[in-house]
Design a protein that fits this description.
The complex is a heterotrimer of chains A (200), B (418) and C (626). Chain A has 200 residues and is an alpha+beta fold. Chain A contains eight helices and eight strands, in the order E-H-H-E-E-H-E-E-H-E-E-H-H-E-H-H. In chain A, strands 1-8 form a two-stranded antiparallel ribbon. The radius of gyration of chain A is 19 Å and the shape is globular. With 626 residues, chain C is α/β, with parallel strands linked by helices. Chain C has 25 helices and 16 strands. The chains are: A alpha+beta (200), B alpha/beta (418), C alpha/beta (626).
Amino acid sequence: MKQVQVHPERCLGCMQCMLACATAHSRTKSLFTAVGESPLPKPRLHVGAGSHDEGFPNRCRHCDPAPCLLACLPGAIFRDPDTGTVLVDPDLCINCASCAMACPFGVLRYHQDWVAPAAKIVAQKCDNCLERQHEGLIPACVEVCKTGALTFEESDEALRRKTREVARSVSMGMEEQPLIPTGVQLLRQAKKQRFEMRCR
Amino acid sequence: MEYVIIGNGIAGTSAAEAIRRLDRQGAITMIADEDEIPYCRPMISNLLAGDIAAERLAIRPSSFYDDLNIKPVLGRRVQSIDPAAGKVRVGDSDLIVPFDRLLIASGADPRISEVPGSQLPGVFCLRNRSQALDIMAAAEHGRKAVVVGGGLVGLKAAHALQSRGLQVVMLIRSAHPLRLQVDASAGRMILAKLREHGLQVLVEAEVAAFEGSGKVLENIVLADGQKIPADLAVIAKGVAPAAGFAADGPIGLGPGGGIVVNNTLETTVPGIYAAGDVAETMDVARREKRVNAIWPEAVEQGIAAGFNMAGRRVAYRGSLSRNVMRIYGLDIMTAGVVEPPAADDSYEVVAVTDKHRDIYHKLVFRDDRLVGMMLINGIEQGGVLLSLIRREVAIVEKKERLLEPGFQVGKLMPQYFK
Amino acid sequence: MKTKAEERTITKDGQLLLKKMEQDQVETVWDRLEAQSPQCGYCEMGLSCRVCAMGPCRIDPFGEGPQRGVCGADADIIVARNLGRMIAAGAAAHSDHGRDLVEVLAEVAAGKAPEYSITDEEKLRRIAREYGVETEGREVLEIAGELAAAMQEEFGTRKGFLTMANRAPAKRREIWQKVGIAPRGVDRETSEMMHRTHMGVDNGWQSLLLHGLRNALSDGWGGSMIATEVSDILFGTPAPTPNMVNIGVLKEDEVNIVVHGHNPVVSEMIMRACESAEMVELARKKGAKGINLTGLCCTGNELLMRHGIPMAGNHLMTELVIGTGAVEMMIVDYQCIMPSLGALAPCYHTRMISTSDKARFPGMEHREFHPDNAAELARTLVREAIENFDQRGETYIPVEAVPSVGGFSVEAIIGALGGTPQPLIDAITAGKIRGAVGVVGCNNPKIKHDYGHVTLTKRLIENDCLVVDTGCAAIANAKAGFKVAEAIKYAGPGLQEVCGALGIPPVLHMGSCVDNVRILVLAAALANALQVDISDLPLAGAAPEWYSEKAVSIGSYFVASGVYTVLGPMPPITGSMNVVNLLTSGLNDVIGASFAVEADPEKAAVLIRRHIEAKRKALGLSALDI
């Protein structure tokens, strides 16, 4: 089964995925109109800064077993048996934040949502864009990620691809293809250096 | 194999389910005081507040006992245990239940007020579903309520009663609410917030008596003579492990009054296990035995105890006190050691305040390990911090960085994922 | 472990005020940088393009996603276009500043700016002659009028080659002609850059970059040079003057007025109003001991250079200055004024005044300056500042000011050398001074405040490299105590000997950021004296903490003029290794100089010294192995 795979080493921190996610979870599904909606749609994945201010896409891992699901008091968090997606039922959620306390990745947020009962604050998290998948679309964050930091594929395929890349980067006779392109490396070195200099 | 489980709370329920995953044949008997389908105890305050219907409390189907082929013995308390004979005596009757493996998951009982009048009708505890329903009934006709105690249950009860339209006075013995969870400065923030929301809070108040004419509560009398009129009162002075039946036997009790268990949840008596609010486990932050009477620990301990009882060795890595509440416009998440002993210099405290976002965050480190946290508002990353405590991750980052506004799990690469 | 404040700045005043502002819970530029993190990698690499409405587009540097924008532009084109537009913006900022000064000169000539005047008549005549204006036996204002008109023509398209670019050595001008980057008009090159980077015009990344150099030259030998020279004509050519620097220049018992921005047209008038007996008397009546005018950033540098007005701090200090609670009024003109200031000032009692019709800020009172109302408006503002004195709450001025000497215009340096550059050339030839380095540019919160400037400067002078500095770098070095005669103790033996004999500091303050052209003029003078090209000299430039588009233009005109230039922060070019390679090495073959990028000032010092020794060797001078 295809799943969203995260490759943080490829994240440039552009936050396009956040915009796309919020838009995909809006009522109107268009960025230009979504920003005028009330409640304002919000992203369910968050691009944070890594230890040297490089981008880090923080997305729900849909863990199994899922600590949030185990911790949920009203039983609002459940797993979709077909896709393994961990979902929140906004009608059952009591906004107690037990899931935030349980989640070791810090992906839960609490706010109103147009599909939840009006004015009710509920736990929000990534739903793997199941609605879009039903329409034959891939998750919105993957669709807009141009660097391959988010991909939608079988996990063993992702692993195979990564193995190939590593192998190619060290193989004789192949055109030299560094895993991380030189320009990106230059930028990351500059950021790391900045960080080290701050600590001097 | 004969399994006996004392208690049908979440620890007992989780244990029964774990046993059944490994052993479909063994007989399971569940002996419990509450004649209920397993329900979500932390949500009784939501029930009291009118946020949810009574049916929503249940966390298992009504066919739970049948589905798992459990023999329920409900509405009865255990009188005594005879470990040598492998027998449990139920109530004052002569019902004797034999066991090969016993789980004590009898939970905890609310601490009762000893002051005169505490038996008056209108004076309640809030520990179980039926008590919540009783309070709701009393609140139908009442206008004024008093909550005795400023802990988690006290706050939730006060909030719930206010939601029902009652005027509520909260009496706290210490100088601020949540004395066990937060430090004094957070306590002052919380106190101010409660008062802002119309809750009348009297601090350093000692109850001397509950006063009533005939069979109706009328006043709460304080030690200083002050009288507070009330139609109902909720006593929320914490809970104590329900381990009375083990007091005189060979099963070892800890200083907290709980039943001491090892890392397989087994008590000092082989074959007898304990889990949940009655069990005294190793606290990973404090590195000492402690009763951490909280829901998520009861779930984990129940599962681990069940597996061990059914023969799969599962190590339980220890418990951690932790709580979260979103109440009175405040988000409060705490865990582990919030106020380290002042004399011990192996602790280090890092804190930030942000008045614009109404934030007060505090982390407590022992050497390079995070051992405690207190987050007032801005709790989204609390789970990450909490997992650092539970997994005892060595912090190589500058400690302050964990409290910076942009902190999230990506800042911890790669040691977090080791 | 460093505290947060220590990670953010090396300056004591900065650290203490940062702590205070943290306690006051007032947000600063560093907090906002943190909130912006991570910054967009496409933009950091120059790979995003917002030029047209078929876009916006971005190129995937990992090679899987799109490799061309909607129009078909690849990474090379997009990076070059973005860099070109940065240069254009920087050149435009400097040159528009220059235009404003020329307009004042024209109005002085026309008698429409009664309180401005020609202060340096000798310089007026000298530059008029450069422009072919007849000066013999003519009235000053007449000459001024004609010079102003001639300079205004430089901005347009009628010239073909900028007059002051003739100051460059002949070899340099030949290179410009050969490569096709001789600057033809100040506005023309900027305008052409905007044209070339429009969709469907110049899609040769090399030709775009070369035009970028020409655009930068139109700033360095055009707009900025006009700004500096006209400022000198109107307000006086700087001569060495002692002054005090850092936040300790604010006074507890006086009315503190701070000027911030770039153009001396406003700050000079404020200064005169502050000095008037009437205002000083009014301040005394209000219970203050006097009026204390201090500067920030480059308008501060303009006043410091010419009048020894104290300097409160550089770019990253502009918010912290207000945090002292001791500033009655801050008067700003334009460039580098953070729009956060207007929102910050109400946390204290400071009144914020904007003065330029082209620079408005939220939360500031707009009081527009024009040559005809400037003196009167300045008096009104100073009066209002005095009246604000009793609104002061608690103040926090935690450090003592540090002495420094400024005012090293080219004229002053040549003067100090005895009227000819020869003694400097001799010292370089003898190896006592290995070479000279311009340490210039801004502050950038990505680099620990002043760390880049001060560390690099320290390493250079202790290795016998003379440092000349401008802008925020110059303020950093002044605060570090490098700008008094006794600072030769930080210098290597050779530099110590030469500076000691001349009685000058080892680090010479040459002015504001437009005054980087003074460095060009000095370099040209040295090259002309030796009859070589600038690129032959043991010189280098560095912008260790740059942030602004102006700095991109400055760096580019340094390189295009033949000066090896080391940038601290990485410019947004790493999306195209072709562009990176051309700028950091390929340009050597084209124009005899190139860029380097090195954020660590310790390493940058090594790069620069290595370059200087290589140039020495090529000139047949003694050279060290670095």
